[in-house]
């Protein structure tokens, strides 16, 4: 059963999340963080920046990455994580991985990423946002609840939602590598944030709906330790 915390603002959510990260890193300076991209985790990163923690030994694994963007593209999740997380929070770049970053063949990238996570001892705290389709990572509706890191096709809805980061919809990639729902469920603690009315239906489905591949976020109900931090608008259909 997820613990749902309804807060007054995204900033407050960021502070609560930062508290969890701070406690984890105090106990384990080389903790393994699961990193999400998108707009949702930004208040968490901002709150962590304000706390000026020493995160230099923290290891990180991004949830997902686009396929097909040129190396160094500013909207590749590798670049986004570097710009929004690694640099401002003082993580060590070599300790942060993104799916497919080993440069090997795409068909082996998923298994290689799973191995890397396992070798790190697994993810301690997985930060998650949720898409309007109910996706977590890029596990779109229909993703197996047991799935591992693999290539996926993005839905049109997700491409449209993410087009705001690109000059045009046409430039939004069509494929990605994403940790699977099974991968995410192996993290020891899930920390899901959602803000705004547009996420209300996905949050209601994820927290209270049936556990179903049609709403991948509902997989969180299979996990024993989940913290969901939402604002009033995202909680409005609970
Ligand atoms: C993106 C990412 C997800 C993210 C979700 C929500 O496409 N792949 O990891 O959680 O969709 O994005 P946002 O936080 O910008 O609403």
From TrEMBL:
Keywords of the record: Carbohydrate metabolism, Hydrolase
A Pfam family reported for this protein in Swiss-Prot or TrEMBL: Glucosamine_iso
Keyword Hydrolase: yes
Domain of life: Bacteria
Location of the Glucosamine/galactosamine-6-phosphate isomerase domain: 11-221
Name by which UniProt lists this protein: Glucosamine-6-phosphate deaminase
Species the sequence originates in: Lysinimonas soli
């Amino acid at each position: 059963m997820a613990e749902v915390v309804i807060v007054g603002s995204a900033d407050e959510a960021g502070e609560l999340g930062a508290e969890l990260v701070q406690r984890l890193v105090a106990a384990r300076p080389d903790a393994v963080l699961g990193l999400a991209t998108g707009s949702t985790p930004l208040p968490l990163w901002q709150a962590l920046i304000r706390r000026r923690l020493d995160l230099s030994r923290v290891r990180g694994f991004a949830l997902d990455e686009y396929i097909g963007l040129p190396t160094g593209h500013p909207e590749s999740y590798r670049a986004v994580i570097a710009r929004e997380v690694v640099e401002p929070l003082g993580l060590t770049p070599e300790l942060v991985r993104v799916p497919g970053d080993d440069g090997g063949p795409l068909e082996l990238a998923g298994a290689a990423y799973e191995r890397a996570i396992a070798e790190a001892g697994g993810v301690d705290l997985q930060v998650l946002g949720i898409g309007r389709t109910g996706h977590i990572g890029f596990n779109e509706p229909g993703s197996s609840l047991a799935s591992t890191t693999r290539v996926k096709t993005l839905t049109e809805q997700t491409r449209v939602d993410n087009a705001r980061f690109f000059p045009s919809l046409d430039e939004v990639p069509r494929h990605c590598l994403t940790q699977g729902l099974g991968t995410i469920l192996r993290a020891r603690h899930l920390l899901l944030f959602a803000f705004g009315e547009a996420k209300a239906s996905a949050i209601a489905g994820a927290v209270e709906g049936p556990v179903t591949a049609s709403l991948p976020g509902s997989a969180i109900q299979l996990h024993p330790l989940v913290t969901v931090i939402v604002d009033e608008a995202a909680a409005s259909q609970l």
